[in-house]
Structure formats: structure tokens, C-alpha cells
Please model this.
Amino acid sequence: MNRRDELAANSAALHARIADACAAAGRDPSEVTVVAVTKTWPASDVALLSEFGVTDVGENRDQEAAQKARACACLDLTWHFVGRLQTNKCRSVASYADVVHSIDRPRLVTALGREARGVRRTIRCLIQVDLDETPGRGGVAPDAVDRLGDEVAAAEGLSLGGVMAMAPRENDPGAAFARLAGVAERLRRAHPDARAISAGMSGDLEPAIAHGATHVRIGTALLGAR
Ligand SMILES: *Cc1c(COP(=O)(O)O)cnc(C)c1O
Model:
């Protein structure tokens, strides 16, 4: 199979899964945005995916993301930065990212806000929630989300979009996504526009959708094994 046919087939299978998950949850599939996580795959794959209706692309490393965003500039895509972010990468990320899913500390709010203002852009920010205190994956403890959310909302150049999380590796993802839904609801009480819940990857999009995910971040199921 050529790459175009492979991506078309993966895309159709993914949309069928999402439709089933939404039907089971009593939700409308239009409430769920697919963020195609194209890390390690070439810009030509991004171009093919955009032919199949992908509008949102995610990357987790700045250098790769910057190159791909530049190569795909004519495609009118929304770029999501989903990986751990160092403050010294904020200038670069602010030049192409529309949404950053991995805000997990005040210094990042300060640095990203400054760089966004420098290029006169507003970057939508999601607070990454650490659901299981796994070292190295990033995220802020659930009880610190509201305070960090207030800081994002107050920062010029940034807007507060909602929350993001990865399910703990060994546990029941449904239980983790249910906790995330509670955190999201609390944040939304103070910030009504912060409606995004970025949860669910190739292996666990069904429980994420069952618990209100508005964005699923899909790599393997769309592009194949890395
Ligand atoms: C790679 C990645 C994904 C996609 O994972 P798959 O299991 O390949 O779908 C989602 N979110 C983040 C933060 C990632 O780094």
C-alpha cells in the first residue's frame, strides 16, 4: 500500500472508532478534535493528512516542530505543542504554536507570555495535570491547577484553554480521566472559556471520550508505529 492509501485507511478507521466512542458516550463527534501527533514523521505526511481532513497537528520537540510548521506553512493548520517545554525554547515555540498543552509551572507562563507578546500573538494554553505523579512526564498536581490557571488567564499574550493529561501507564485510564474531568470542571467554574480537555491517545481514546475529552492526541493510530 502506498503512504496515501495507508493514511486514508488509518484515518477512516480512526474516525469510526471516534464515532463509536461518541455514540457510546451520547456525544456528538463534532465535539472531539483530532490532534494528529506527527512526531518522527515527515512534513509530506502532514500534507497528506490535511487532505483527509486533519486541521490540527501536534509535535513534542521544538526543533522538529519548527521545521515542519515552516514546511507546511501554506496548509493553514493549527499547531499544538504537546511535549515538555523548557523556558529557553519558548521563543521558538511562540513563533509557530497556536496551542501549548504542557503548561505546568509559573516560569513557563512568564517566559511563554513574554515571547508571545514579542511576536504579537495570543497562544492558547492548557494546564498539564499530573494524574499519578510519574516522574519525568511533567504536569502539575491536581490541587495546584486552579492557581496556575489564574496565572495563565492573567498573562497578556496567553489565553487559558483548559487542561491536558496523559493516563497513568499501569492504571485504569477511565478512573484517571474521570479525575481529570473533575479538575477541568473546577477550572471552568472560575474560567468559563477554559473548556478544552486534551486527553486520550491511540490506546485510550475511548475512555477519554467517555469522560469528556474535547481533543484526542493521536500518533500511532493515524501514522503507524514509530
Ligand atoms: C506521542 C504523543 C501522543 C500520541 O501518542 P500515540 O500513542 O502514538 O497516539 C500524544 N500525546 C503526547 C504528549 C505525545 O508525546
In short: The pocket of pyridoxal-5'-phosphate is lined by residues 37, 39, 60, 82-83, 201-203, 217-221 (CB under 6 Å).
